[in-house]
Structures are given as C-alpha cells and as structure tokens.
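Work through what follows:
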Amino acid sequence: MYSINGQEVLEGAYLLDCNYEQKQVLKTDDYTVTVNDTGFTLVMNSTNNKTFTLFTPTAADIGKRFTFANINTGKLTIAVAGANVQLNNGTAATGTMYSDTDYTAALMIEVTAALKWTVISASGTWSTT
C-alpha cells in the first residue's frame, strides 16, 4: 500500500485527489501511455529507473493533457515513441525528459499538433536529452 497526498492507495487503484480533482493511477513499472490515460495523473513509485513511453499523437489528439509524477528514488523518464515525434520543452524538441534527483517532480504535457507534445507546466527538476 502507498500514500499519495496523505491518502493510502493500492497499486493500480484510482482515487480522486481533492487538491486537483484529478484521478491518479499508481505505477511501479515501465508503462506505455495511451489516449485513454487523458486526464489522469500517472504516478511512478519505484526505487528503480522506470519509463513512461508516450504514444504517437495525431491531429485528433490535439488538446489532450497528461500529467506525470515521480514519488520515489528511481529515475523517471518520459520518452516519445517514433523518430518523428517531438517532446518540446519550449525551447527545443527532444526525445526524452527525465527526473533524476527530484523525487517529488511532476510534469504536465499536452498534444499541440500531430506528432508534437508540449510541456504545459513542471515542478521539480526535469532534464532533456
């Protein structure tokens, strides 16, 4: 059992966070994000390095937002799928972003065009590669 914002949750369980009114899904292993994860906060709780892999967005996905959080000591990487997909931090397109030393980091991204993810907000320390 784990705790998020003082609330106990079971792995894979959904809960409503009263602070953000957004459902959270706890993950402990690598995960491929799907369009069905829209509106959820995907929370990684692992002492090992793990990756959330983003799907390849189309024009039909524009406006969809996804939030990620890292709450343990493992490095969390957000990676794109496909050579032509961009994850843009506002200054340059990159293939991955990761939180390596900040174990309370959170990241919100949005599909802003076909094949393009844009960072909307971030807290904690995120790096690009």
Q: What stands out?
A: Residues 1-5, 7-20 have pLDDT under 50 and may be disordered. The first strand starts at residue 2 and ends at 4. The domain at 2-122 is CATH 2.60.120 (Jelly Rolls). The chain is about 0% helix and 50% strand.
